[in-house]
Design brief:
There is one protein chain. By secondary structure, the protein is of the alpha/beta class.
Length: about 220
């Protein structure tokens, strides 16, 4: 694990985590779009970055976490349920993971103009349950009308097959619910070995970014 500083932010990087380039992109988007309500699924280094930003810009941050032993950020605790099945707009989503109680919580919340998805997904790293959809709770922000006219949605580890399936459905829902979007994928050196501070990262996870507007 090694340490980076960028502007007013400080963060750590290691194998499987976001890379410095990805964290820097996150920070630049925060400072460009100036979101006032941030929601993340899965706490960690991102929570520290969001908290620094929130203090600077008087924003609100909501972090959802399922693991009380991992949580050090006073996150909202929700159990993680595996191998569930959903039917959305006539389509069946079999074998997925989601937070129990997220929908009920979202019902009582205003819209979020910045969403970061980095929750546990499909039995990292080998998907032992053969789940077809990872982090299907991503869809709730569209289904429950929790994205304003302009928003940013970021999704980490988007290179995995189960993640691709979820994001494909996410894009379908954006179209169905009248949103347009620009998509950006940040992955360094196309998964080749990347070296930072003499520390080698074997695989660099993708970060997919959606810039979303209401059509």
């Amino acid at each position: 694990m090694f340490h980076f500083d960028y502007k007013d932010y400080s963060f750590w990087c290691d194998i499987g985590m976001m890379t410095p380039l990805q964290y820097i992109r996150m920070i630049n988007l925060l400072e460009e779009y100036k979101p006032k309500r941030i929601c993340e699924l899965g706490s960690g280094q991102s929570t520290d970055i969001f908290n620094v930003y929130a203090k600077k810009e008087d924003a609100s941050v909501y972090s959802i976490e399922h693991d009380i032993y991992w949580n050090t950020h006073k996150s909202i605790m929700m159990p993680l349920i595996e191998n569930t099945q959903l039917v959305i707009n006539g389509r069946t989503y079999e074998s997925c993971t989601r937070y129990e109680g997220l929908e009920l919580w979202l019902e009582n919340e205003d819209k979020f103009d910045f969403v970061f998805i980095d929750a546990p997904n499909d039995g990292i790293p080998f998907n032992p349950y053969n789940l077809k959809y990872a982090r299907v709770q991503t869809l709730d922000f569209v289904l429950m009308n929790k994205l304003p006219n302009e928003s940013i949605v970021m999704y980490h580890d988007s290179e995995r097959e189960s993640a691709k399936n979820t994001l494909n459905e996410f894009e379908i829902l954006l179209d169905e619910y009248g949103y347009s979007y620009e998509k950006e994928i940040i992955i360094e050196k196309d998964k080749e070995i990347v070296e930072y501070n003499k520390k080698v990262l074997g695989v660099c996870p993708e970060l997919t970014i959606y810039k979303i507007k209401k059509s």
